[in-house]
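Record type: monomer structure entry
Structure origin: computed from sequence
Chain ID: A
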Amino acid sequence: MSKLAEIERRCADHKLRMTKQRRVLLRVIAQAKDHPDIEKLHRRTRFIDPTVSLATIYRTVRLLEGIGVLQRHEFTAGRSCYEVTPKRHHDHLIDVESGSVIEFRCPEIERLQAEIARRYGYRIIDHRLDIYAAPLQSSRKRQSS
């Protein structure tokens, strides 16, 4: 099943009314290779349908987040960005210079987190790991080389 079809099915399961504008936004979300913020979602959606308002994007994103279709992240101060709620857990490495986000999975990190929780008498129910990092060679040095 395509990502778009899966999102549409989840919306239908929650009886979310599908307007033309919502369908366009769902398509944009399904095609995203990054973690777009509201403004990027709005720009991309308006490229396809110029009648989509920013208010529609905000309302729909809130609805999608509420039913578990979208997951909100705050990788940069005051800026929420979104991704389709993943089927498999992953963590994020955020480049503080460019803002790019790398998704990764590391069984060793998962094992260590579970071990730490057990050591303190807990079991992990959910967690999120976001690593903020600067490139070993800054973009300024790369450009001047």
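Annotation 1: The radius of gyration is 18 Å.
Annotation 2: The chain has a mean pLDDT of 90.
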